[in-house]
Structure formats: structure tokens, C-alpha cells
Amino acid sequence: MNESESQKIPLGKRIAFAFGEVGDNVAYQTFSFLIFTFYFTVVGLPVLWISAGFILWSVWNSFNDPTIGYLSDRTKTRWGRRIPWMAGATIPLAIVMILLFTPPVVPSTSRSDLVNFLYFFLILLLFDTVYTSFNLNYNAIFSEMYVTMEARSSTGKVRISFVMIALIFAFLLPTLIIEDITNLDGNTSYTLSQYQLTGIIAAIIVVVSYFIILKWGVKEPKYISKDAETAMSFKNTIKYTFKNKSFLWFLFPALGTWIVIGILPILAPLFMVHALDIAAEDTELIGIILAVEFIVAALSTPLWEKIRVKKGARMAGLIGIMAWIIPIIFFAFSVSVEMAFIVQIFNGIGLGGALYFYDQCIAEIIDEDEITHGTRRSGIYYAVLNFLIRMSAIINFFIIGIVFTFADWYNYTPAHPETVVLGLQILMGIYPAIVLVVSWIGMYYYPIKGERLMENRKRLRELHEEKQKRYE
Predict the structure, then answer these.
(1) Closest among 69, 84, 462 to 231, alpha carbons compared
(2) Comparing C-alpha atoms, which of 91, 88, 86 is closest to residue 141?
(3) Structural domains in the chain?
(4) pLDDT tens, position by position, 290-348
(5) How far apart are CA 72 and CA 377, in angstroms?
(6) Distances (CA, A) of 313 to 157, 316, 325
(7) What is the rounded distance in angstroms from the CA atom of residue 177 to the CA atom of residue 313?
(8) If we measure between CA atoms, which residue out of 173, 30, 40, 174 comes closest to residue 97?
(9) Which of 3, 160, 331, 401 could tie 343 with a disulfide, CB 3.0–4.6 Å?
(10) What are phi and psi of 157, to 5 degrees?
């Protein structure tokens, strides 16, 4: 597929491709939104056990994600490099979505904490393996199917729209099903069944949306899938990935973005019930407030696209991150539900810029890497980013564990000490703002811009034309 052809892909195919965002985001955001609250308040697992599980998870990720990325880049089948991984992950991910909410002992006791911890840790490993197998390859094939900035942008807008749909499912649907999301009334068996129903519905959404993309939305360009034949050794793959200075600078805003994105759904139920004083039975309101930021982020995509066209992806990232810092502090210290709603709108605009630069910049980095080495290595780059996404969760849970311990909220109790509210406000506002400042600095030094970017586009087009003549 040459550059002109990549811009003529029918809207229906782009829509089918974007369906991958529905299953992808429903799976990951359901996991992010509910996993901490479920195991802390319903299962009764102490916060330090949960934090330990996520820290050990990071050790697994340090091997799992790069390995999957490396193997993906070297996969040789008649369907290409990415599609077999995506297809193979679909049913296992659906099963894991159900297993997330079926711990062996509920509620947990001191005698059963170890049993529940081991189950929790096993589920983390299973979720990460199957989710990464789809998500990594889904993102990798995006930069391979859609080569030009125009094609990526037009397809990206469709993807963002489907992200919005997915987030409505991920944040609102659980609150319609789970009546007491933080288990304040102590009716554990009833609340458990509602969490499990949520997992079943998420599993169905995963299967349906992934079937649509696999059936009608993806087709690997042959001349790029042939790069599996010239893939580097694992040692050189890791070596050259981490010698890429553009990528290293990009890691700062990428990690920071996911730290801030991740902290919101993790703590939203606890923060809104205990800091905003939303009644536990008003779970729909919690979901709506949470969804507002992500919906506005999706709706703001045309704004960020205009900034990217005029100033480049780097500038869109700089403006987006800066626009996010102040509102996120105001949200954490909101004095009313109405204020929280309003501030979430401004949070959404900043988040939109962060999400937009993320996809655009990593595609630029992979393009430049292909020019340098002659082989497209999307898999390993998305593998490292997936590891960063998991690492952001580890960092968040580590910080949460420290703050909750100092606030004397080691075990969940609805009647909490006064220090808990301040701890939640710090976690939802001050901490993310500091992270975003560091992210902005990393984005400032990101070097692919201006003439360098234009030269890369020219050289990439020439390289792809050469590959097409060789393989097609």
C-alpha cells in the first residue's frame, strides 16, 4: 500500500478498525476502574497486599512485554505479523475479564489473605499477557496500515470517537449495575454478583468488537510484514531501541501521561464517596463525573488536530500537558459536585491533547527508526510503551500504599480518619500535577519536529516505494 492508497481506505474499513478501541478500552478501563476498589473494599485484601501484587507484576512486565513485542516483530505467517497475535488473544482476554471478579474467598480474612493475594497476582499476570498480546499488535498495525500523517489523523479521529463509546461503557455501565461500588453497606455477596455481571458484559463486548476488527478492519501491508525476515536479534532490538534519543525523551511525557490517566479511575470511587461526599448508592453520578473528562477529551480532537497541522505533534503535546496541570489540582480540591463537573471539562481538554500527541509522536519515532535500520520495529516500541503503562500503575499503587498507610487506612473501613480525605486530594491533584510538570519538560526536548520531521516523511516514502517494488 503506497502513501496515496493509504489515504483512500474506505470509511467503513476505518470504522471497523476503530472497533478495536471498544474492546481494548472496555477491558483496560474496567480493569483500572474496578480492580483496586473491588479487592480493597469487597474482597477485603489489605492495601499493602494489593500494592505488593502490583509491584511484583512490574517484574513480570519487564520480561513479558518486550518478549511479546520482539516475537511479534519476528512472526512469519500468511496473515502477517500482527493479526495472529490479535486473534489468539481475543477469547482468553474475555475469560480473564470474568475471572477478575471471582476470587476464591470473599470476604477475605487474615487466614485467607494469602490465598486471595495469590489469586489476585495470578489474574494480574494473565490479564497483562493476553491484553498486551492484542493491544500491542493493534497499535503496531495502526502505524503500518496508515503511513501518512493525513491517514493517521483521519483514522485517529474515528478511533477517538470509538474510545468515547468505550469509555461510556467502561465507566457508566458498572455504575448502573453495581449499586454499592465501595461496599459501604457490607452486603458483600450481593455486591460481588454485580461485579461479576459487569465482568461478563465486558467479556461479551471484547469478543464482539474484536471479531469486527479482525473480520473487516485489519489487513497487513505485505511489504511491511516481510520485515519479519530482516528482524534484529533480541539483544540488538533492545540495544537500538534504548539508544534512540527521540524515544528516550518521549518516555517522560508518555509515562507521565499514563500515570495521570491511571490515577483517576483507580481512586475515583473512593475519592468521590469520601472526599466529594457523593452517596455510595449514587454510583451513576460517579461514573458520569469520571466519563466527562474522557468524553470531552474525545470531542477536543479537532482542536488538537488543528494545532498539530500548524505547529506539529510536539507543540500539541506541550500545550495539552500545560492545559491539564491547573484543572487537575482544582478537581482534587472541588468543594461541590457541580464544581467537579465543570473542572472535569477543562481536564478533558488537557487530556485530549495528551492522548493526541501520544499516538502521533510514537508513530513518528517508529518511522524514523525504520529509516535508520531499514526494518519496521513497531512491536518492540509498543512493547516498551505497554510496559510503561503497567509501570505507571505500579508507581500509582506504590504511592497509594504509602499515602493510605500514613493516613491509617491500611484496611478498608467506611468510617475513615480525617487524614484520608487529604490523602485522597493529594493523590488526585498535587501528585498528578508534579508528574505533568516533569512530562512537559520531556516533551519540550522531544527532537522530531520542523525540518527533521519533513525530511523523515520524504525518506520514509522513498523507502516504502523501494520495499513495494521488492515484495509486491
Answers:
(1) 69
(2) 86
(3) 8-471 (1.20.1250.20)
(4) 889 988 988 898 899 889 888 888 999 999 999 999 999 999 999 999 999 999 999 99
(5) 9
(6) 15, 5, 19
(7) 39
(8) 30
(9) 331
(10) -65, -40
